[in-house]
Amino acid sequence: MSEGRVLQRKRDEGVAIAAVTGTAAPLTGSQMTSASGSEIHGQQGQAEKARSGTGVRGRSIVLSMLPWGAGVMFLALWQLRLFHWIFSLESYQLPVPSAIAISIQENANMLFRYAMYSGTEMLGGFLLGSLLGALAAAGASFFPTSGRAAVTVLSALNAVPIVALAPIMNNWFGDGIWSRIAVVTVITMAAMAVSLFKGLTSIQPQYSDLLSGLAASRMQFFWKLRLPHALPSLFAGLKINMSTSIIGAIVGEFFIASQGLGYLLSDQIRLANMPLAWSCIVIAAALGIVLYEAVVLAEKRLIPWNRARTDP
C-alpha cells in the first residue's frame, strides 16, 4: 500500500471519529492518532473510576448493614426460642422479644418517666464526674511527677465496687436522686482523670523543645500544646464514662430508691414479672447507646482530624 493511500485512510478515519465526538474539523493523521488514543484512555479511566466508586459504595453499604442484619438474626433466633433450647430455659425465665415489646407498649408511660429519672442521674453524675476528673488531670499536668502520684491514688476509686459504694452514698446523701448522682460521679471521675492526664503528659519532645525555645509560659504550654494534644484522650474518657454511668445509676437504684429503671427492674424481678423486668433492661440499654452515640457524634464534629487518623 502506497503512502498516499495510507494517509487518505487515516484522514477518513479521523473524519469519522470527529463526526462521532461532535468535532467539526477533520483531523490530520497524527492528530487523529493522539486524539483517539487519549479519548480511549480517558473513557477507560472514567469507566474504571465508575466501577471503583460503585464497588466502594456497595462495600460501604454492606458493612453498614452488617450489624443490623446480625441484630435481626439474633432477635429472630431468640423469638424462635433457640436460646431456650440451648440453655434449657422456660418462657417465664427468658421472655421472647415479642412479649417484651408488648410489655413496653403497655407500660410506655411509666417506663418513659422512670427512664427520664435514671437518665437525669446518669447525665448529672457523668457531667460532674467528668468535670472533676478533667480538673484533677489538668492540675496534675502542671506538676507531672507529683501529679502522676495523685492521679494514681485517684484511680484507686475505680477499685471500689459499686455495690459497696452505693450504700455509703445513700448514707451520706439520703435516698434521693443525689445519692445516685454521687455514685456515678465517683466512678466516672477516676476514669477521666487517668485518661486525660495521660493525654496531657504524652507530648513529643520536639514540640516541647519548640515551645521552650520560644520561651512559652506554663499556661501557654497548656493551652497551645497540651490541651489540643489531649482532646482525643478527653473524648476517650467521656466515652468510657458514658458507658459506666448507666451501670452506676442502675445499680445505685437497687438499694434505696422509689423510682428509676433500676428500682423497677429489681422490683419486677422479685414479682417474677420478667417481661417488664426485661423491658427495663432494653430501655436502659437503648438510653446508654443513644447517649454514647451523642458523645461519638460530638467527637466527630469537634476533632475530625482524630477520626481521619484512626479510621482504616
Describe the structure.
This protein has 312 residues and is an all-alpha fold. It is 83% helix and 0% strand. The protein has 13 helices and no strands. Helix 5 runs antiparallel to helix 6 (144-155), helix 5 (108-141) packs across helix 12 (274-302) and helix 6 (144-155) packs antiparallel against helix 8. The longest helix has 51 residues, at 29-79. 27% of the residues are buried. Residues 15-27 have low confidence and may be disordered.
How would you summarize this macromolecular structure in one to three sentences?
With 312 residues, the chain is mainly α. The chain is built from 13 helices and no strands.
Which SSEs are present, and which pair or pack?
Elements: H1 3-21, H2 29-79, H3 82-87, H4 97-106, H5 108-141, H6 144-155, H7 162-173, H8 177-201, H9 205-213, H10 218-253, H11 261-270, H12 274-302, H13 304-310
Q: Which regions are unreliable across 5 or more consecutive residues at pLDDT < 50? A: 15-27
The helix count comes to: 13
Any idea what the radius of gyration is?
32 Å
Number of strands: 0
Helix content: over 70%
Morphology call: flat
Major beta-sheet overview: none
Decide which structural class fits the backbone.
mainly alpha
Beta-strand content: under 5%
Sequence of secondary-structure elements: HHHHHHHHHHHHH
Oligomeric state of the chains present here: single chain
Report how far apart the termini are. Answer: 59 Å
